[in-house]
Amino acid sequence: MNDILLGCIQCGKCTGGCPVSVRSSLNIRKLIYRSLIKIKDKNKDLGIWECTTCSTCSIRCPKGVNVVDYIIDLRSDEIERGKVQPQVRDTLESVFKFGNPWGRVREKRADWIEENGVKILQPGEKTEFLYFVGCTPCYDTRTQEVARAMVRVLKTASCDFSILGTRETCCGNEIKRMGEVGLFEMLIEDNSKLFKGISIKTLFTTSPHCYNTFKNEYPGLDFAIEHYTTLINRFIKEGRINPEGKFERKVVFHDPCFLGKQNDVFEEPREILRAIPGIELVEFERSREKSLCCEGGGGRMWVESESEEERLAVTRVKDAADLKVDVIATACPFCLLTLEDAVKTSNLEDKIKIMDIIEILDWVTKVENDKLTD
């Protein structure tokens, strides 16, 4: 790893562009410098657990240094030495035992379905689209609503899709970024074996984090991989989904880091929103490649922050309040949860609502369906 770090020219673009460094002890430039000159205890007080792995540093580095991989290596060292927060330890143990980071048993993974009549794919069966729901939408009560909305919208498109039910297990994106690389490799092996036992044409995900790891870090997958926004946008353009009900709200879209910065999916979410009648779509000043991280990635959903400064999600919500929007739309379960929490702590619950794009689309579709049944 030091051979890679030798490319660093100490220009400071990594720390200067890091959204977390302004409110924490994370100083990437100093971290690299201390490593190169072999200062002992180089991790001490340099905030490696504050990193959200949003990859702004790596993207902006003029010498192509992959800073995120370096921070993951430092976290791996901490884990091997047992120097992690109890919550991190419990999260990793939960993934090993139950296949999810939320401490919930595998048998409860499909409870969100209720009476939606979703087809659960069995070994040896085939489907055109496999909906990989993800751990958070399966277990968290708020984001379960996103998964249910997805199912309802897909049914209006007459889409041949299935889920894995209780056989679905964590993709490992956050596990790798927390530094437990061995467990991540085990998850790749288990999931790849599961995929080989079924026949699918396309796998699509709720979470950009799942999308990122399947697309970029799983070797040898023989099917297409999409985030739901690209799939749904295509269905709208093909006329398979017709958002005819009105959503007369002022909306701003928050670009998730793992969807936009890391995978260049910027237009499709906005095209979906523009296709919904009544929406007035506006932009954050910090949007697209410059989008402000919500602080949900890199395992930060399970890592206690040591900083007492204002969290980035709160800053994001205040920016939205300045725009006088009714809704912050996003397309990531972590962004949804962190932004909703920020709305509550900022006492803006009666002014700003946080919604996933698929929830907005489901709302206008349900409105139109209700008209048809009246």
Which keywords apply here?
374 residues, alpha/beta, Rossmann fold, 3 domains, four-stranded parallel sheet, 16 helices, 43% helix
Write the layout of secondary structure elements.
Layout: H1 2-5, H2 13-17, H3 28-36, H4 56-60, H5 67-80, H6 86-98, E1 126-132, H7 135-139, H8 141-156, E2 161-162, H9 173-177, H10 181-196, E3 199-205, H11 208-217, E4 224-227, H12 228-237, E5 250-253, H13 267-274, E6 280-282, H14 312-323, E7 327-330, H15 333-345, E8 353-356, H16 357-373
Structural overview:
- It is a single chain.
- With 374 residues, this protein is α/β, with parallel strands linked by helices.
- It folds into 3 domains: 2-80, no CATH class; 87-236, no CATH class; 243-373, Rossmann fold (3-Layer(aba) Sandwich).
- 43% of the residues lie in helices and 9% in strands.
- It has helices at 2-5, 13-17, 28-36, 56-60, 67-80, 86-98, 135-139, 141-156, 173-177, 181-196, 208-217, 228-237, 267-274, 312-323, 333-345, 357-373; strands at residues 126-132, 161-162, 199-205, 224-227, 250-253, 280-282, 327-330, 353-356.
- The strands form 2 sheets. Strands 2-1-3-4 form a 4-stranded parallel sheet. The protein has a 4-stranded parallel sheet with strand order 6-5-7-8, with helices on both faces.
- The longest helix is centred in the C-terminal third of the chain and has 17 residues, at 357-373.
- It is globular and about 60 Å long.
- 47% of the residues are buried.
